[in-house]
Structure formats: structure tokens, C-alpha cells
Amino acid sequence: PFHVKNQDPRAHNLRNLAAVGAMLAGGIGVLLAAPVVPAAIYLPLAAVLLGSIYMGLFVLVIHEASHDMFLLHSDRSKLRGLNRLAGNIVGAIFFTDYIRHWEQGHALHHTKTLMPEDPQDGKQDGLRSLRRTVAILLTVPFSFVAYNPSRRYDGHLKRSLIGVAIWAPTLLVAGAIGGWSAPVGMLMGMHVLALLNLIKKVREHGGMEHLPHPGLRSRTWFHPFAALLAPFNLNYHFEHHAHQKVPWYNLPDYHAVCRDLMPADVQRFYFVNARPVQLRHP
Of 32, 175, 241, 281, which is the most buried if we count CB atoms within 10 A? Predict the structure, then answer.
């Protein structure tokens, strides 16, 4: 019952498009709050909230599209075309090479997890390197640009120009709406996005490269701020690698099945800080 092919396409598409609309509305709400909230309070809050919204758009649109699961269609060719279009649009906003790093690269990530061929998580940084990266992202303006994984692909200049063409008028409009703190908060949100992606990599796969099979090199993790740090059930990562055609909204129920099947002595390793989950499907 969890597989995407067993979902109602209209309900699935409505759910995802409504979620995108809600995130965009939330982002606009953050910008509208800029004139009435003191900058010292607004900037850190806006950075976290907008960064989380960016992360949500990235996960829901780009990641799900790379699995042909953002939008569903009965026609296979139209299915791929719709998801590729959505992935490319959101990818352009975040200076991302959707085709190579996600449509192709994410498929390789699933079969070659933490192997040298893995273009997304093939190299896990050490603790010292991670601390340095966090310090740079927290203190150096625009340093998020240096940590964009799509920089490795040719066409980076073209992607950068397209991204600037999207961001420049958006920042100007944000400034007109909320004053100087609104566009600054938007740019600070990009730093938060880079930090969230760093946390994601460490939580999902950190320290698991020694395990013998790529399918075992992913873990699920729980925390009190999951909606911000891991939107759209991104924290259910063992389940996602176990069955990559389960849409995000079915992952909690699929986790319950995996938990019941997994030997008890290894559950703590794969399900970190797990809580009891009520199984809703028979």
C-alpha cells in the first residue's frame, strides 16, 4: 500500500501542490513581518524560517521529482516530463544542476551509497572539516555559494546567471515590501539551507561507509524539531533507501513496518531516538 503507484494521482498532486503553495505563502508572510519586527530579532528568525522553507522546497520538489514522485501522471513520458520541468524550475532558483546532480546523480546515490562513484555523499567530511564549514557558513557572507555541489558540473556560469536573474528582482521586491531586513533575511536563509544540508548528510549517512552493502548505509533519525530540520519526513532515510518509491507522506507508516521486521538488536543503530509508531495500514 505504500508504493507511489498505488496512490491516487489527483490526491497526490493536490497534496504536493498545496504544500508548495503553503510554503510560498509562509515565505511571503515572513517578508511581510519585516517592517514590524526589530531587525535584531527578525534576521535570525527569518534566516531559520526561510532556510527551512528553502529546504522544504528542495526536498518536496527536487528530491521527489528525481524519483518521479512530485507529480503523478498515467502517461510515463508525461510523468517524467512534468517532474523534470518542476525539478529544473526549482533547481534554477537554487543554482542547482537538476538533471546531472539529481535526476542522474541521485539515482546513482541510491545504488552506490557512500562509494567513490556516489556524487552526492561519496565523500564524508571529518569532524574538523565539518566544524570549519559550519564556522564559515555562520560568519562569511555569501559563503553558501562555495558549498554548492553543482559547481562541479560545467555550465556553472550559465546556472549562476539564471539564478541571479531570478534572485535580483525577487530581492528588490522583498526590499520594497519589508525594507532592508527582508532581502538580507532571504540571503541569510541560503546559509541556513547549506547548514541544513550539512546536518542532513551527517545524520543520514555519517560514519556508515564501513558497512558492507550500500543498502545498509542509511539511518532514520528523530528529534523535536523535525519539521524544521528535516521537512517532509526527510528523517525517515533508512526507509527511503529501502524503498525509494514510497512518497514522503507514507514514510512514517512504512517505518512502522520496517521497525517490526528489523531485528531488535540493530534497531538502535538504524532508528536513532525512535519513538513508538502506530501502524495504520493492515
Answer: 241
The 10s digit of each residue's pLDDT in 95-134 is 999 999 999 999 999 999 999 899 988 666 666 777 888 8
* C-alpha closest to that of 30 among 43, 40, 17: 43
pLDDT of residue 124: 61
Of 161, 127, 270, 150, the closest CA to residue 205 belongs to: 270
Q: Taking the mean position of all CA atoms in its chain, how far away is CA 122?
A: 17
**Nearest CA to 132 among 148, 147, 115, 153?**
147
pTM recorded for the entire structure? 0.92
DSSP string of the chain? Answer: --SGGGS-HHHHHHHHHHHHHHHHHHHHHHHHTGGGS-HHHHHHHHHHHHHHHHHHHIIIIIIHHHTT-SS--SSHHHHHHHHHHHHHHHHHHTT--IIIIIIIHHHHHHHSTTSTT-TTTSSPPPHHHHHHHHHHHHHSTTGGGGG-GGGGSS-HHHHHHHHHHHHHHHHHHHHHHH-THHHHHHHHHHHHHHHHHHHHHHHHHTT-TTSSSGGGS--EE--TTHHHHSTTTTT-HHHHHH-TTS-GGGHHHHHHHHHHHS-HHHHHHHEET---------
pLDDT digits (tens, 9 = 90+) for 19-75: 999 999 999 999 999 999 999 999 999 999 999 999 999 999 999 999 999 999 999
Q: How far apart are CA 192 and CA 143, in angstroms?
A: 11
